[in-house]
Design a protein that fits this description.
4 strands, about 100 residues, 4-stranded antiparallel β-sheet, alpha+beta, Rossmann fold, about 20% helix
Length: about 100
């Protein structure tokens, strides 16, 4: 379970990435996070796997407030959450994209 309760994120330069976000995902649920560039998608993911901590609110993963999780346990947290980016660093050429789109030909 992933739960965002009134989560906000403001970067040190004053940029507001998220403001009072409430979300809830159940275990095993698939979710697609979409939006324009700069809308907070990456920030949302980085808060879930504790690459950063929110400036307000709570991010709860499997019953644990991730901002209170000792740094040494962060790798265990990250093993609980799966995610996939829409792009892949290993496929930058059109040929690779074509191959990825049709893996059985």
């Amino acid at each position: 379970m992933i739960h965002f309760q009134d989560v906000s994120m403001v970067y040190p330069d004053g940029t507001k990435a998220l403001s009072s976000v409430d979300l809830h995902f159940e275990r095993g649920e698939f979710a697609f996070i979409t939006g324009a560039s700069g809308s907070g998608k990456s920030t949302l993911l980085e808060l879930i796997y504790r690459e950063m901590e929110p400036t307000g609110g709570e991010v709860i993963v499997d019953g644990q407030d991730v901002s209170k999780l000792p740094r040494g346990l962060v790798p265990l947290l990250r093993r609980k959450v799966g995610w996939s980016s829409r792009t892949s660093a290993c496929c930058r050429s059109a040929r690779c994209g074509k191959t990825s789109a049709s893996p059985w030909t």
